[in-house]
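From the shared-data thread, chain only:
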Amino acid sequence: MDSKKLSSYNLLMDMHAEITQLPKTFREHVCQECGWSEATFYRKTKGKNTFSNAEKDKILDVWDNLLLNLQNLAAIFRPN
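Structure, as tokens:
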């Protein structure tokens, strides 16, 4: 990845946009990985912890990948 010059990009705007989209992106990825509808996702968020081991693993994998993507985005802005 090439480092972006801070003078030509808005670090704050880019990071804020990513953080703002995080809940939606998380929900979409979990629904896709677990084969759930959006309604099922929200129902499961309000219920008891009734997830299979496979669902737990997928949810944690999605979380880890999203955090890694945020770290990679931050690395783009860091000078070498």
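Residues 13 and 36 are 32 Å apart (CA to CA).
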